[in-house]
């Protein structure tokens, strides 16, 4: 700043954040990466929810009610830096460029302490044995493998449901700790991860080859529409069937339109058609009721706990679709995928060595369509199992309420797993802890977590390559090809959604619970996400152009504005009404 002949330096150090910093046991510099941006969950998480990440052996660090990963030792190691950059490059370009910018600061990197790394080739997720399994999966092309894995997972869930039934008190907590080992075995089953890796590598190879041979970008997007065994996209279509039952009964529709939050199943039997609607919704909830927005946090309210959360989506479906839309929508995607396959193979055959290229591509398309849907299943298994735990734990919470130890069942969310266990064991608890943590949570809700920060409070920013982005457009990650214009609906909570057919959803992030909305959309924009995160995967299967990782999208785009999204190049344009 200049005043007269004097020059004042008002900021001579990197910008720091007011975001709370993680606690650390030494004075050495640390670098923290937001895990929430990788998990599609940037909202704060209560202590009980944090405990379940610790069970999965995540190196959990908390700050501002969010999960962070300490990357210090990775960045201090040459191989750790390479693996970290490669991993982030696939998932989150902004995180990648933030890390890249940090790595330019040689003195800072030299000052970082060495130690055990998070990302390493010997870990379960990145082991060479996983690559071997992926190669075997590709070569064998076993169409029954996915069904075998799903059956095994369902048997595992049935087992834990049966075994937990008679557990209570400290025995319940011990059972959950022990069962986490089985959950980990399921989550990191090499055959399961091999299928997912095979699908991802195959999609990458198809896209690379088609762009090289035919000049066509992201061909795998259309080829991934209406694939079998995608438990998440099937959920969106299944709710269309529920909506078809509801649409038959005007009295139920009128009740849904005026209802407030409550137990809708108490009222439905009193209405004409109410029992049929209740049975249809219950069948849906039996399979998908453990889902909800922010579902990786065990404390979030599940659809089974509050079925009224589904009512806005059901009403949207009735308004936006004709009866039997499930069949029509699935068949449309299937026809588009088959047409794209035929078009690609025909064009390939006209190239030099075309028959060989077409044969190779046909096999890859077959592998892609057989395996890509399974990518959503391990998380379904994880969330289902978490809900089994939750129902048992909330019975213990109810007992604490009866004893006057807590005021309401949900108070236990403010306790860690071990604190909850100790309260059950001793029937004692200092309630001030609950009050203080509720107050902290309310404060944490007002914060926006940074992607990357140091223990000194400096936020490290990344940026997009703006080479192919029009002036004034918002840059992001292209995850599902196509260009579309439409009305933006800026929505932060799924239950608040009022969607008309052809709208473009603009939100902070999506998880599987948002899938039922996708059937009405024609495009998607999110602030957080990557190529293989939920919104991207489902957008490709439903054939919706999508751009994710658009910073401040929910602030820059106003609800009701017309926007144009380019899911091939990765940008969003805000249009004038006359554009």
From TrEMBL:
Q: Which GO terms describe its molecular function?
A: ATP binding; transferase activity, transferring phosphorus-containing groups
- What taxonomic ancestry is recorded? Bacteria, Bacillati, Bacillota, Bacilli, Bacillales
Protein name as annotated: Chondramide synthase cmdD
Tell me which PANTHER family the record gives.
Answer: PHOSPHOENOLPYRUVATE SYNTHASE-RELATED, PPDK_N DOMAIN-CONTAINING PROTEIN
Please report the stretch or stretches of sequence annotated as the PEP-utilising enzyme mobile domain: 499-570
Q: What gene is behind this protein?
A: cmdD
A Pfam family? PEP-utilizers
Q: Which organism is it from?
A: Virgibacillus massiliensis
Q: Does the keyword Signal apply?
A: no
Q: Which keywords does this Swiss-Prot/TrEMBL entry list? A: ATP-binding, Nucleotide-binding
């Amino acid at each position: 700043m200049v005043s007269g002949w004097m020059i004042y330096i008002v900021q001579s150090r990197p910008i720091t954040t007011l975001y709370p910093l993680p606690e650390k046991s030494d004075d050495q510099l640390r670098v923290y990466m937001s895990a929430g941006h990788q998990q599609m969950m940037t909202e704060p998480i209560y202590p009980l929810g944090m405990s379940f990440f610790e069970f999965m052996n995540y190196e959990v660090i908390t700050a501002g009610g969010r999960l962070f990963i300490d990357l210090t030792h990775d960045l201090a190691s040459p191989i750790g830096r390479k693996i970290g950059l490669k991993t982030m490059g696939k998932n989150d370009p902004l995180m990648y460029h933030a890390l890249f910018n940090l790595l330019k600061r040689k003195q800072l990197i030299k000052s970082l302490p060495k130690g055990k790394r998070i990302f390493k080739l010997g870990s379960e997720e990145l082991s060479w044995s996983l690559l071997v399994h992926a190669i075997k999966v590709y070569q064998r092309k076993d169409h029954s493998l996915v069904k075998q894995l799903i059956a095994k997972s369902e048997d595992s869930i049935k087992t834990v449901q049966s075994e937990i039934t008679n557990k209570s008190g400290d025995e319940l907590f011990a059972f959950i700790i022990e069962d986490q080992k089985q959950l980990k075995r399921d989550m990191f089953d090499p055959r399961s991860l091999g299928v997912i890796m095979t699908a991802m590598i195959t999609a990458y190879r198809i896209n690379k080859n088609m762009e090289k041979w035919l000049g066509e970008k992201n061909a795998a997007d259309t080829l991934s529409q209406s694939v079998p065994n995608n438990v998440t996209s099937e959920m969106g279509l299944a709710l269309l069937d529920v909506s078809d039952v509801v649409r038959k009964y005007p009295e139920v529709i009128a009740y849904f339109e005026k209802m407030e939050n409550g137990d809708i199943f108490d009222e439905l039997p009193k209405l004409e058609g109410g029992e049929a609607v209740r049975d249809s919704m219950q069948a849906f909830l039996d399979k998908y009721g453990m889902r909800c927005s922010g579902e990786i946090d065990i404390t979030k309210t599940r659809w089974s706990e509050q079925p009224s959360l589904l009512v806005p989506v059901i009403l949207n479906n009735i308004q936006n679709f004709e009866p039997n839309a499930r069949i029509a929508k699935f068949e449309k995607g299937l026809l588009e995928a088959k047409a794209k396959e035929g078009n690609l193979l025909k064009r390939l055959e006209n190239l030099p060595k075309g028959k060989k290229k077409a044969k190779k591509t046909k096999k890859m398309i077959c592998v892609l369509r057989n395996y890509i849907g399974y990518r959503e299943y391990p998380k379904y298994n994880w969330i289902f199992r978490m809900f089994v735990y939750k129902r048992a734990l909330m019975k213990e919470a109810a007992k604490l309420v009866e004893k006057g130890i807590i005021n309401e069942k949900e108070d236990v969310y403010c306790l860690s797993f071990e604190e909850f266990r100790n309260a059950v064991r001793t029937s004692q608890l200092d309630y001030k802890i609950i009050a203080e943590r509720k107050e902290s949570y309310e404060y944490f809700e007002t914060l926006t977590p940074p992607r990357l920060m140091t223990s000194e409070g400096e936020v490290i920013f990344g940026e997009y390559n703006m080479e192919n982005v029009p002036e004034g457009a918002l840059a992001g990650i292209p995850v599902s090809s196509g260009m579309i214009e439409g009305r933006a609906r800026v929505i932060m909570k799924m239950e608040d959604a009022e969607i008309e057919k052809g709208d473009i959803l603009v939100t902070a992030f999506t998880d599987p619970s948002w899938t039922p909305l996708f059937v009405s959309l024609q495009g998607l924009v999110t602030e957080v996400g990557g190529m293989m995160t939920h919104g991207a995967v489902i957008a490709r299967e439903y054939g919706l152009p999508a751009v994710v990782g658009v910073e401040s999208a929910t602030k820059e785009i106003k609800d009701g504005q017309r926007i144009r999204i380019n899911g091939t190049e990765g940008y969003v344009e805000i249009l004038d009404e006359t554009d």
